[in-house]
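Notes, Module 5: Reading structure tokens.

Key idea: the token line is not a picture. It is a compressed description, and you learn to read it the same way you learned to read a sequence, by spotting repeated patterns. We will look at two proteins. The first is printed below with its tokens.
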Amino acid sequence: MNMHVGMREFGRKDAGQQVDDRAELKDVMTALAARDAQIKAFAEKAQEEIKATGQMAAETKSALTGLVEQGTALQARLTDVEQKLARRGGSGDGPAMKSNGVLFTESDDFKAMKARGAGTARMNVKAVTSITSATTGTGGVGDAIRPERLPYIVTPGMRTFTIRDLLMPGRTASNAIEYVKESGFQNSAAPVAELATKPQSDLSFTLTTTPVRTIAHWFHASKQVLDDIPLLQSYIDGRARYGLALVEEAQLLAGDGTGQNLLGIVPQATAFDFANLSLAGDTMIDRVRRAMLQVRKALYRATAVVMSPTDWSIIETMKDSEGRYIIGDPRGVIEKRLWGLPVVDSDAIADGKFLVGAFNMAAQVFDREDANVQVSTEDRDNFITNAVTIRAEERLALAVTRPEAFVYGNLVDGNAS
């Protein structure tokens, strides 16, 4: 075959393959765009499921996993097409890379040999000694290797909130809660003879007020980020609400009532009567029972025990003199209960402390404004900087109507509370 004819045929074949590769590249990009749209839809669905039930539905999780696997296959196919285009001179977006045959026929040695009609022509080709991910230099494949972005954001560990669930719920349309509490009772009731004057008893009352407090915080973000990554909107929404709940739990349990703080349960609870109720050799389990007795002697019945996860783990692993576990068999599920009461292991209470009380009747949470998230462009210079301000807040009050129904103290030896 004539050399010129052969080179033209080679060029036409290579050009045709480039057209096929570009068509395949377009198909892959279309499939990736469709995959991204599906991921967005399922991510929004998952967020709604989490808000409604506290967890993602199994079918939604399975669909997202399938989309991730599909994306991995498409990404591998994309990389393969891009590498083929790079070997054949590019995707058509830049100058085509000349093949060795074209470079040879354009070399000075070949042109001189052609003019002489005979002889030898030589062209030196620099060898590629290694292939790297660099964007420049010999052997650099550059953008042909691209990282794969997972379709979700990895969140840190999140605390489970429990204290609010122990309390009576309530709502208010005011900025404060007032309640009348009996503060004194002089009982003079006695057997009375016929026609004799009956004795008089006395009652006294106190008006107590607890204010509604606001818990809030805000984030600053670019508008482009919220527009381009819908999943980030849900993430910020969830983290904003989580931040409120984190502070709320600490306030309900231990708020000191100063400034804008709620007055929590612990500061109002009755101290454990160490002097009269403790016995030598009492364990942590015994201490809980003594506290239950103190609540009962105040004419209430305890409904729950609150302690730290560390202390509950210590109680779970207690053994008798023969090395047998006291609470239960570690090979099975150990119910979190002591003396018939549910044990709530809360991160909001300090290690070594406990709170026992009649939670269902002695304290109540009143919501003035549920936790909500708002986004605004009308804050400072947001308009000209294309930014948004994200604010999350809630308003609530806590009324501890019967402080004597709560007992707070040390799980280990010591009179300090």
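Here is the second protein, with the sequence above and the tokens below, as before.
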Amino acid sequence: MGNDFHYNFIEPDQAIADFVENLGTFQNLSGEPKEVVIIPDGRVDLFFMQSPAEPFCVTLLGLETYPEQREIPSKTTAFVVSFKPIAVEYILNTSIADVLNKGKVLSDDFWDFKAEDLYDFKLCCKKATQKIKELLPEKADERKRKLFELMHLSKGEMSVKDLSEKTAWSSRQINRYFTKQLGLSLKAYSTILRFRTSLEHIAQGKLFPELNYTDQNHFIKEIKKFSGVAPKELSKNKNDRFVLLSVLKGK
């Protein structure tokens, strides 16, 4: 990205990897807001942020189902924990059904983070990792653990019927769990996972479907639904506005 926008994302400690996808930081050092497009990625983000325009705040973002343009204020510094959905129940001990496509502000002393912590990424990672380790459940429901594992391994392409059979959990109960905890159906979440995988392919310059899409038109339609643009334009990533794509290209 430009010299005024910096980011760094790392994989979590193995002890918390069942619940956390990555830990990251970003800074907009410019004197102008940074325009970005938030696109669905199947993760639940916990943000610790501050800027001259906004006091230190902690925000939990729910899942996204469509693209949304946002601005990162000038001189913003942030630390983010990107959770896998199973963490909603076991680590965050809440439901995010009410924050689909939006977020909620948490207490500004959440996890004992302070504004000055944000300037030390290693410290933030250490504090968050330690806190999550303290919150790890003694035992998670094996059906739920298996369900999310299969969904991610299959890149969202395993049918509800197959997932139900392999987890010994009825499709009705699975959908009830998804609706109650995450605010959307299993099928809707699976479609987002497929898009996320396609995004990784687009980051590699592959502009044709690599997964189980009906045809090229179906692929283009779904990419436009979740990003707002066709695969070719998404790949160009003008002005680095698709931050997730920039991160994937940088891998």
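Summary for the second protein:
- The chain has a mean pLDDT of 93.
- The chain is about 35% helix and 20% strand.
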